Amino acid sequence: xxxxxxxxxxxxxxxxxxxxxxxxxxxxxxxxxxxxxxxxxxxxxxxxxxxxxxxxxxxxxxxxxxxxxxxxxxxxxxxxxxxxxxxxxxxxxxxxxxxxxxxxxxxxxxxxxxxxxxxxxxxxxxxxxxxxxxxxxxxxxxxxxxxxxxxxxxxxxxxxxxxxxxxxxxxxxxxxxxxxxxxxxxxxxxxxxxxxxxxxxxxxxxxxxxxxxxxxxxxxxxxxxxxxxxxxxxxxxxxxxxxxxxxxxxxxxxxxxxxxxxxxxxxxxxxxxxxxxxxxxxxxxxxxxxxxxxxxxxxxxxxxxxxxxxxxxxxxxxxxxxxxxxxxxxxxxxxxxxxxxxxxxxxxxxxxxxxxxxxxxxxxxxxxxxxxxxxxxxxxxxxxxxxxxxxxxxxxxxxxxxxxxxxxxxxxxxxxxxxxxxxxxxxxxxxxxxxxxxxxxxxxxxxxxxxxxxxxxxxxxxxxxxxxxxxxxxxxxxxxxxxxxxxxxxxxxxxxx
Amino acid sequence: xxxxxxxxxxxxxxxxxxxxxxxxxxxxxxxxxxxxxxxxxxxxxxxxxxxxxxxxxxxxxxxxxxxxxxxxxxxxxxxxxxxxxxxxxxxxxxxxxxxxxxxxxxxxxxxxxxxxxxxxxxxxxxxxxxxxxxxxxxxxxxxxxxxxxxxxxxxxxxxxxxxxxxxxxxxxxxxxxxxxxxxxxxxxxxxxxxxxxxxxxxxxxxxxxxxxxxxxxxxxxxxxxxxxxxxxxxxxxxxxxxxxxxxxxxxxxxxxxxxxxxxxxxxxxxxxxxxxxxxxxxxxxxxxxxxxxxxxxxxxxxxxxxxxxxxxxxxxxxxxxxxxxxxxxxxxxxxxxxxxxxxxxxxxxxxxxxxxxxxxxxxxxxxxxxxxxxxxxxxxxxxxxxxxxxxx
Lengths: 497, 392
Known about the structure:
The complex is a heterodimer of chains A (about 500) and B (about 400).
Chain A: E1 3-9, E2 13-19, E3 25-27, E4 37-38, E5 41-43, E6 49-51, H1 53-56, E7 65-66, E8 79-81, E9 84-86, H2 88-107, E10 110-117, H3 123-135, E11 139-145, H4 146-157, E12 163-171, E13 176-184, E14 187-196, H5 201-220, H6 231-243, E15 246-251, E16 254-259, H7 260-266, H8 268-284, E17 292-298, H9 305-315, E18 319-320, H10 328-340, H11 348-354, E19 358-360, E20 366-374, E21 381-389, E22 397-405, E23 412-420, E24 431-439, E25 449-456, E26 462-468, E27 474-478, H12 482-492
Parallel strand pairs in A: 1-10, 10-11, 12-17, 14-19, 17-18
Antiparallel strand pairs in A: 1-2, 2-3, 2-4, 5-6, 5-7, 8-9, 12-13, 13-14, 15-16, 20-21, 20-23, 22-25, 23-24, 25-26, 26-27
Helix pairs in contact in A: 2-3, 4-10, 5-6
Chain B: E1 4-6, E2 19-21, E3 32-39, E4 48-57, E5 64-74, E6 81-82, E7 84-85, E8 99-107, E9 111-122, E10 127-128, E11 133-145, E12 152-153, E13 156-157, E14 165-177, H1 182-205, H2 212-226, H3 231-253, H4 259-269, H5 272-287, H6 294-306, H7 311-325, H8 335-339, H9 347-367, H10 372-391
Antiparallel strand pairs in B: 2-9, 3-4, 4-9, 5-6, 5-8, 5-11, 7-10, 11-14, 12-13
């Protein structure tokens, strides 16, 4: 049996960690001998993918090179690259395959792997990540939210020292997550998590790129091509601005000066979003800042000085930051893999290291169905989102709710599964993650009971069933195995009752 | 496609164990009913309800599958008026008049209930009588033949021969209703709509001009309302609404249109439903030119506030209108108008409101597909972030 591994599949960089002989999580170097592998793919016309540092150099210069596709996971986005069409899942699978091959070369046969995902990843995005992992030849049975993995690592690092309520502030390359957790030694209970899907270091780089483009135009009257000041150039200047108040960038034949103040002024909108998400998450957890014992920092973007200032202003002096803020998620994921996996393969020392761990996760979204509900604005009723599973329910969980048919001789009911990260009533503002119907026997009066059961498993995947109590006809949906169910529902429409 | 319906109120009929024959229980007597007050729910924490209990012999001559139907009338005045239900499961199949209909047991000759059993329920919270205030209700209870189901229309028997009726009885009950009744509402409805037109004209003119698109929104709204009527009634109402439109326009132009008087009158006579209808018209007028103008939004927020409506529902109506407009939010329109922030609020309250709104729109951003709606959600987030910067 191979080694447990944890994978932080990041927007800009990815990392792999495993458990060493003593049961401590360690980062596995890639084939270049470094810890972080850029999540960048360069494709050839034959469909051959080059992943990592070499590909990264071609970002915004080479049209066959692409990065930041994690942000589109679970969407219908198609990238046309080198004459081929690729989904975000395809591209993620190339990155994961590179990570698998490099890790196998470094530590030998691999066992169960855990992949981390942002806290606000929708069901589709989770599913897409799982598919990418399978396509990459990884044995993934579990996924874990990034802030949870980081919290697990910090709890492990600090031994029995932690006890109380903590926040994980995770600002990576592509997403910002904040989680409130209860920790007692290595027993971790997630209270609540929220995230902004397009807010990270990458966005700060783009802002800097726009400043340079605008200054260049001001100076020369000409538009600056992306290739002449790429996102990589912007990232380097951002890092320099973290150390100095002013830098000068050489762009073509021009010197463009950039100040930290103007950079901070231009990312103010993102900073406001970070503050508001922190405040609303603390309120959602029903605590105050004073209740927090410490704030754990995660993700490379927390190094930006203004971010540090914001954190200090909001949370005071309770900030805890280890030296490996870039690695905490992968390291926590490796621990999670050992905690969730078959521990018979672990040595006694490894076993004793992980046996103290306990992780309690919560549902990260509201799940519901569409039903006709009373509408106070019209005095009638209208199709609304009826929430069945609440956010922040301890998982695994299962909730059953009864609905009733509307008409006499009603021969089918719509079965819709919705998802939202706030308590939405308006169907327009929820994501329909599954739509189908349940055929009913004819000739019955209205008011037939339809029992709807939503369950959420440990892997944070939804299972739903719609049962016609009278006839015992049932529609079961496992949202991880889409194809078979969807094909069935499509053909169902044409079958004769 | 049909849809599912949620039932929020659960009610159980408890007849099953108390059915017996006259020989087994000589004191069963003829069938009669009584009323019992209770609260629904397992632990009686649900809504207040009046239970109809029955006892005695059921007058059938052969085995019959019986059902129990309860209708409600308002008998305060000389004529009985139907009472409506706001929950479809407690409505007649063809009307929204109150009816609690449940299937009972199969009963044979000389059989009945040996004890008092629950056979029907009336939930006052979901009733709309013709008038508000203290009303004398009449609970009309029928035992019916489920295999020869009689038609009950607005609570009344519709066939003279009374086929399918096995037994009927009534009980009176007094209840004090808050708010307006359906007949009252109908009487004031036309006047409220004429006043709503005034609000709509004020909204349109809040930026100084009545654009053609705004005028057409009001015209289409009047036309849609009139389509529900015919004959003399239609032509009378047409005159009323057109006059209201013309008068509001000339008064607004000359600065004589008193918004507070209009709102006071609406508050005096309108039901909540018609107040929301007026706000929706104002929002539609605002959206007519595809732009959420600062002055229009500010005015609508003010009107909503003064009409004492549920802010959450107003927020839902406003959000839906904004998302339908698309990304064209007026340049001078800030988060205050878009999010219903009162500039008089304390700074802390504004910041809390902004954080709550941010959470809501951030969640929507995750749910919406790429396209106009998503761009609008992103624009809302940007406006919220700007406001945060301003107030923090």
